[in-house]
What does this fold into?
Amino acid sequence: MLKLLLAVSVSALFVSPVQASDIYPVTKVCVPGKPHCERWADEFKKALALADKGDHAAQQTVAFCLSSGCHSAVAIDRVASCSWHLVIVNSGTVTVLDRSNLRNTCRPMTPAEKDEARARAGELVRKIYNRDLAASDQM
It folds into this structure.
């Protein structure tokens, strides 16, 4: 069952945001009366759509929410977060903070998780920027 869930979560990043939310809902159902959760769930959905189009700030929001959960609005997925940090570093508009976030998110992961993150990031970079992921990712 765990392998099936992992396969579904990996494949969710390789489809459009609408299809991804149908296959693997990364946003959680917020507890009624938790305005921060509801607000962040909406923000994440908007950011995911913009991140897929190359918006730098939206990519930062997606990566942050995938690593922190954004007030329990988003399912934490550190591999996906690392993937988005790799996308950001390969965007051409990278900052020192972006590189720091990449190291802090990705370095504690296992070699297998890093390989999975690189594979996901490679697909995203090809989809968003029409080029390959840079060989040096500073993980």
Q: What stands out?
A: DSSP finds seven helices and no strands in the chain. The chain has a mean pLDDT of 83. The first helix runs from residue 2 to 12.
